[in-house]
Amino acid sequence: MAPVKLFGISGSLRKGSHNSLLLAEAARLFGGAEYSQADLNLPLYNGDDEDAHGVPAAVDALAQQIADADAVLISTTEYNKGPSGALKNALDWISRSQIKPWGDKPVAVMSAAAGRAGGERAQLILRSFMVPFRPRILQGPEIHVAASHEAFDDNGQLVGEIYIKELTELMTALRAEISR
Q: What is residue 145's predicted lDDT score, i.e. its pLDDT?
């Protein structure tokens, strides 16, 4: 039997992003999966550019990676009480692709942010952004890693029993959702 394919989408473009670390931890705790992560360095969506040049190949490649995955992990940072512009831009572009990858796709959402709410508002807004795509978004446990600059050790692994416990529970739920 082939390993489960997990695809991660980090809302942060930063090298060493806490959201990218959180995705890697989720994949590690999922166990036995083939994991890859999205590149969201895409041009800003502009309908005139799309009309003139079509959907960029990088967007179709991203949509295909989502389609090929058994499940998607999305982790968003919180900028000004919402998801990052890079993440929203990627979702807007993906909606323009002929590849419609989200329908009935199991998706686990999480967030890591410097603030004390751990990206809770951004995650709530992200969930609303996903409604038109109709994925199967897991409802919990909700993962909001607060003070994310203190939440990972030097090896990039989560510290704090509650985060590890809840992320493990979310990955167990995702495994069950994939099997559904």
A: 97
This prediction has a pTM of 0.96
Total structural domains within the chain:
1
- Position 42 pLDDT exceeds 80: yes
Domain ranges, residue 17? 4-179
- DSSP symbols for the chain: -PPEEEEEEES--STT-HHHHHHHHHHHHH-SEEEEE-----PPP-HHHHHHH-S-HHHHHHHHHHHH-SEEEEEE--BTTB--HHHHHHHHHHHHSS----TT-EEEEEEE-SSTTTTHHHHHHHHHHHGGG--EE---S-EEE-SGGGSB-TTS-B-SHHHHHHHHHHHHHHHHHHH-
CATH of the domain at 87: 3.40.50.360
